[in-house]
């Protein structure tokens, strides 16, 4: 048994493979993807890897789980093929790839992995082939045959016309004077090449793709007697300039150059680090209205936010993007970087005109459209990308546009377009005042709002904040979308037009002829002072028709009994403010009478105790009024419900007594009242 206990963990480790062995090193993303490809190919024999090939191209990718099921790379369809995993070869008559590739020197291994053009050019130089065939330990990032053929003719001619200087130097730049396997290729590291000790930039991405100076590693870790060969998809060249230096020498960055200098970001862009600059061309700046561009260029804070929104926190080569990625900028915003075929996209737009311009401290992609962050926008500009255009037109027509384009610290409560589906109000003094009460005198963030907070408006009103489980409301209007925080103003998209309170609950009821009978009842019951004083009330207010629907005798009896009348009226008043946007599926609201009201909302219809509410959210300084078309009866006034409750209690006691009797094998005698109830229930 003791021997079995020692052998079992070893057997499990062998069965699960090296990745499952606890003491083993963590596998790199590339190795994990290769392992998945091997797993998908195992049905075809040992050491067979599944690869995804883009239809109509020679591009192949080892597949990860997500790509396997989607069958797409950069939105383009792929086909699955099966081939020998790196380091293995087929044997005639046997399944899969059972044989390891023969171990040869670097020069011969180039031919084995299919890098025959690199092998040919190595042979043309006088010095490099003997070095590759001799003793030592080297790594070569060998360009594929397609990589050499895709070089511009003038570049290739300059190399092959001077093989012992230009070609030799180019090949030496692809080499490192030690063995480097993929598990050592860390994201952001630099390897020292054999050409003048120039650096080679390595990036190892979470999706398993490894790039070398932004060239993709196609097949890795081909061992040789004197080193290792990695096959890459481009011929790489030395990198000498940092991002700032590239900006300074590119004619198409004239405006960007001036903007970077004005913002002081040149220190960052010429320093150490690994960044991605989505560099706007002169054309990108020209697309922006002159007024907007001049405003941003003249505002150091807005300008810095604008430029930081174009800088990703890490170097991202185009070859590493095979699907959509959310990447964070130095501004703190998130950009959706994706691809469509050979084109890179930013937030779904194919605006990258030149990609993978490598710098010593990152990579540059040229873009033809400016990415203006919310933090550099006016309220007008924020609204242009939101569902509030109708409300913004109203503010403009009312002569309030200067508040939305200036440097005034404001929060705009803008009703969404659907609120105005039945039309917009006429522009007059009343409408203008209402709109002024949709502007808060401070730049707020919804995450800092709290229940009971009061907000001052430009119209002179104080608005209350109500925090509910699933909604955040200001008076009767609830926030319907995430904040948009601009340079000076913040935009809250609201689900309805806000109506500021216009007096106490009693003032509201007295000012509406529908509630004249309710007002008289409140006065008769002595509740006027309660509903006039400070407080937080939700009043379900029966209309005159609700009272008139009661039997005349019952109504007269109720109005003649002040105590009973007060009891019923208190049942219509909740002890907190509940606006319709805060109701959700079901809320049990405690009334001043003591019992709870069941308030629910479904398909935009609010009900209380299953009775529909005729009108919601008539705001008062000490509460909210909801008009209802019936008089609610407290549970104590419902005989049937009282009987049902007693019957339920009797039945429950009977069940417990029966269970006790069976368990103890004794008889249990019920109290007479419950015996009588059970007898009545039988009939």
Automatic annotation (TrEMBL):
Residue ranges of every copy of the FAS1 domain listed in the record: 103-236, 240-371, 375-498, 502-632
Intracellular or extracellular location(s): Secreted, Extracellular space, Extracellular matrix
Domain EMI: 45-99
Swiss-Prot/TrEMBL keywords: Cell adhesion, Disulfide bond, Extracellular matrix, Gamma-carboxyglutamic acid, Phosphoprotein, Repeat, Secreted, Signal
Stored PANTHER family: PERIOSTIN-RELATED, TRANSFORMING GROWTH FACTOR-BETA-INDUCED PROTEIN IG-H3
Assembly description: Binds to type I, II, and IV collagens.
Protein's recorded name: Transforming growth factor-beta-induced protein ig-h3
């Amino acid at each position: 048994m003791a021997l079995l206990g020692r052998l079992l963990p070893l057997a499990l480790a062998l069965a699960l493979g090296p990745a499952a062995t606890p003491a083993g090193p963590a596998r790199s993303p590339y190795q994990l993807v290769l392992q998945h490809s091997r797993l998908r190919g195992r049905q075809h024999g040992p050491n067979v890897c599944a690869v995804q090939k883009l239809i109509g191209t020679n591009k192949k990718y080892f597949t990860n789980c997500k790509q396997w099921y989607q069958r797409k790379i950069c939105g383009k369809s792929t086909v699955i093929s099966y081939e020998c995993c790196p380091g293995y070869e087929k044997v005639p008559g046997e399944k899969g790839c059972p044989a390891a590739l023969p171990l040869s020197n670097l020069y011969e291994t180039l031919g084995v992995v299919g890098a025959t053009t690199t092998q040919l050019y190595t042979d043309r130089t006088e010095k490099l082939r003997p070095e590759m065939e001799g003793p030592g330990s080297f790594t070569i990032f060998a360009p594929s045959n397609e990589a050499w053929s895709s070089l511009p003719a003038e570049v290739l001619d300059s190399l092959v016309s001077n093989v012992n200087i230009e070609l030799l130097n180019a090949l030496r730049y692809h080499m490192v004077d030690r063995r480097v396997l993929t598990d050592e290729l860390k994201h952001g590291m630099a390897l020292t090449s054999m050409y003048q000790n120039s650096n080679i930039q390595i990036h190892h991405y979470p999706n398993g793709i490894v790039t070398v100076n932004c060239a993709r590693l196609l097949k890795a870790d081909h061992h040789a007697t004197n080193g290792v060969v990695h096959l890459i998809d481009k011929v790489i060249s030395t990198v000498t300039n940092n991002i700032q230096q590239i900006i300074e020498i590119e004619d198409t960055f004239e405006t960007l150059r001036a903007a970077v200098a004005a913002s002081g970001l040149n220190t960052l862009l010429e320093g150490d680090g690994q960044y991605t600059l989505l560099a706007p061309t002169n054309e990108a700046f020209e697309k922006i209205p002159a007024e907007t561009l001049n405003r941003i260029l003249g505002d150091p804070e807005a300008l810095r936010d604008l430029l930081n929104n174009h800088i990703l926190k890490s170097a991202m080569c185009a070859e590493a993007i095979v699907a959509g990625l959310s990447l964070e900028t130095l501004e703190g915003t998130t950009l959706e970087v994706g691809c469509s075929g050979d084109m890179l996209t930013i937030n779904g737009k194919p605006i990258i005109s030149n990609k993978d311009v490598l710098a010593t401290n990152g990579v540059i992609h040229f873009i033809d459209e400016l990415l203006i962050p919310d933090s550099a926008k006016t309220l007008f500009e924020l609204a242009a990308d939101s569902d509030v255009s109708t409300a913004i037109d109203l503010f403009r027509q009312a002569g309030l546009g200067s508040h939305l384009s200036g440097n005034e610290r404001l929060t705009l409560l803008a009703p969404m377009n659907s609120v105005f589906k039945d039309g917009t109000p006429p522009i007059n003094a009343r409408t203008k005042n209402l709109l002024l009460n949709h502007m808060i005198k401070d730049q707020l963030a919804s995450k800092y709002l709290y229940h009971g907070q009061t907000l001052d408006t430009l119209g002179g009103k104080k608005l209350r904040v109500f925090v509910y489980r699933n909604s955040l409301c200001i008076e009767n209007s609830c926030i319907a979308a995430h904040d948009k925080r601009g340079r000076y103003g913040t935009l809250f998209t609201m689900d309805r037009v806000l109506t500021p309170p216009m007096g106490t609950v009693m003032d509201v009821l007295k000012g509406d002829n529908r509630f004249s009978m309710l007002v008289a009842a409140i006065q008769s019951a002595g509740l006027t002072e309660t509903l006039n004083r400070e407080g937080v009330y939700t009043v379900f207010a029966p209309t005159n028709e609700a009272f008139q629907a009661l039997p005349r005798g019952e109504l007269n009896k109720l109005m003649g009994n002040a105590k009973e009348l007060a009891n019923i009226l208190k049942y219509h008043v909740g002890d907190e403010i509940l606006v319709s946007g805060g109701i959700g599926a079901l809320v049990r609201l405690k009334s001043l009478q003591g019992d709870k009201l069941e308030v629910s909302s479904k398909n935009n219809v609010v009900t209380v105790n299953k009775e529909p509410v005729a009108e919601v959210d008539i705001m008062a300084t000490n509460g909210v009024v909801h008009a209802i078309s019936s008089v609610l009866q407290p549970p104590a006034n419902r005989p049937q419900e009282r009987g049902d409750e007693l019957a339920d209690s009797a039945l429950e006691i009977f069940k417990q007594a029966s269970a006790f009797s069976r368990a103890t094998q004794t008889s249990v005698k019920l109290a007479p009242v419950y015996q009588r109830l059970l007898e009545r229930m039988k009939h």
